[in-house]
Amino acid sequence: MRELAASTISDHVAEMCEEANIYLGEDVFGLLKEALETEESPTGKEVLKQLIENVEIARDEQIPICQDTGFAVFFVEWGQEVHLTGGSLEEAINAGVKRGYDEGYLRKSIVTDPLYDRKNTGDNTPAVIYTDLVPGDKVKISFAPKGGGSENMSAVKMLKPSDGEAGFIDFVVNHVKAAGPNPCPPIVVGVGIGGTFDKVAVQAKKALFRHVGKSHPDSRFAKLEKTIKDKINDLGVGPQGFGGRTFALAVHIEDYPSHIASMAAAVNINCHACRHLERII
Prior knowledge:
The chain has eight helices and ten strands. The chain is of the alpha/beta class. The strands form three sheets. Strands 4-2-5-10 form a four-stranded mixed beta sheet. It is globular, with a radius of gyration of 19 Å.
């Protein structure tokens, strides 16, 4: 059994909060630069140039890519041979978020309750944390600062199995079309299918943590990702909604087994600053 101090988790989380908000991953940055080469709209090209310049300024001047430094969302794969000492996982992650957002001068965006007082917690906690127990003696922490504007463009729909592939495609494309420029395109579209009402939403969120542009391992879903992406880009919304063919950089689908009577579907959109980072401890 390997022992791991809660303070070690906090240290890594604090560093990840700062790093993810300053440096856009090469997966996303590379797709933005590719889009600049293929975009047909002059206005769309100009917008993409500005987005790319913004990423470079953030990197060079060590400042956040976006003023919305997000809700701190974590997926943790915890090796069953690891014993955490000195505190709980939730406490360790929240301590890291608090320190990272303070030391990085990152905007704190979380309020105490969603309906009444809505008083800022002052430290961007609590984080949203999903955990999976896995074999081994390692801990994998995946982090994403999820902006509110793109998060607001989420949806869940309990489709019928008879809706089939066509109904699933229509749901995703029509929802993205309705979102329009609100989630700051070009976007990355996370899609969940299967499971229950709550599970499918988590799957859609998890899809945004995938290396952006990496296809689903199942060729059927990989083909479906491309089909949906092409249909979204054919809408002509373009970068920041100014027109063009670069509305979506990628579509990622995460599937899960389904009840015989159900076909749950969910969409979780991320803006062009699809910030995500992972570490293995």
